């Protein structure tokens, strides 16, 4: 107990209240779900133990949440994993810090012998700190869940819902019909921007390609042979996709930048990181032109 932290730097522990509408989509649902979970657990425990103070429950929740590791456990009558969550607290492993790039240790569960181990990817020198990767979390997720951020986080992302994608496409001069929308939904590819991508992702480009299809190309499921083909995209089609996508990304960038100016100071940095992702994606097109 003595080595456990006494405080945490998460918004929940500090009592920070975000207006959900001001949060980027990438963290909005997680923030709502976290608040709900803490509230429900607190209510249950206080009914069972009226003498318990909320701040003690909040501390205990953070101790567990920041240290628990997802492991496939056998079902237990006293453990509710109806949401698919199976967790364990594993000594030593929970002390390792996060680095999504330089991590030398890979944490994994060996089901055959029932052990959870950390395997080194390379030789580790004496006195060198061992890092693991908690997952592909952007800075908003790291802050809300663990209470820290990284100066250069390649997992930063911009979520682009289908309705926003369609609006951007129309601004770029693409005639999007109900048939296009139906095919987009059936394809089900995400249209997100990631800081790790060298330019827009394959799935985002394919969604733009869907919206550029002619009616006859979509009829009777013909679009499947086009979208799922392993053949290289024709040069003229690829050029058209890039042309429209660049316009769409510039429009998206301006929209995010304008939204950033209107946001409360405590969340502006979240939106500024999204602007940087848009800038990087746009710069990819300019670099290819040079």
TrEMBL record:
Lineage: Eukaryota, Metazoa, Ecdysozoa, Nematoda, Chromadorea
Span of the signal peptide: none
Protein name per UniProt: SET domain-containing protein
Any one GO molecular-function label of the UniProt entry: protein-lysine N-methyltransferase activity
């Amino acid at each position: 107990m003595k080595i456990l932290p006494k405080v945490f730097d998460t918004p929940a522990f500090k009592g920070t209240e975000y207006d959900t509408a001001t949060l980027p989509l990438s963290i909005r649902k997680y923030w709502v779900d976290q608040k709900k979970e803490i509230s429900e657990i607190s209510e249950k425990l206080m009914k069972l133990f009226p003498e318990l103070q909320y701040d003690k429950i909040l501390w205990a929740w953070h101790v567990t949440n920041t240290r628990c590791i997802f492991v496939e456990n056998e079902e237990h009558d006293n453990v509710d994993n109806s949401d698919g969550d199976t967790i364990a607290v594993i000594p030593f492993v929970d002390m390792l810090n996060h680095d999504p790039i330089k991590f030398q240790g890979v944490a994994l569960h060996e089901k055959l012998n029932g052990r959870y181990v950390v395997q080194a990817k390379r030789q580790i020198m004496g006195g060198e700190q061992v890092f693991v990767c908690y997952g592909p979390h952007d800075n908003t997720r790291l802050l809300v869940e663990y209470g820290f951020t990284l100066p250069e986080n390649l997992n930063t992302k911009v979520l682009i819902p289908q309705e926003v994608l369609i609006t951007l496409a129309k601004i770029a001069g693409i005639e999007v019909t109900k048939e296009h929308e139906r095919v987009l939904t059936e394809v089900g590819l995400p249209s997100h921007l990631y800081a790790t991508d060298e330019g827009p992702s394959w799935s985002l480009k394919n969604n733009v390609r869907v919206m550029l299809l002619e009616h006859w190309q979509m009829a009777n499921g013909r679009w499947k042979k086009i979208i799922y083909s392993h053949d290289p995209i024709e040069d003229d089609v690829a050029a058209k996709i890039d042309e429209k996508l660049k316009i769409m990304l510039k429009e998206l960038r301006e929209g995010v930048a304008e939204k950033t100016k209107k946001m409360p100071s405590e969340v502006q940095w979240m939106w500024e990181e999204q602007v940087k992702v848009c800038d990087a994606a746009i710069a990819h097109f300019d670099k290819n032109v040079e």
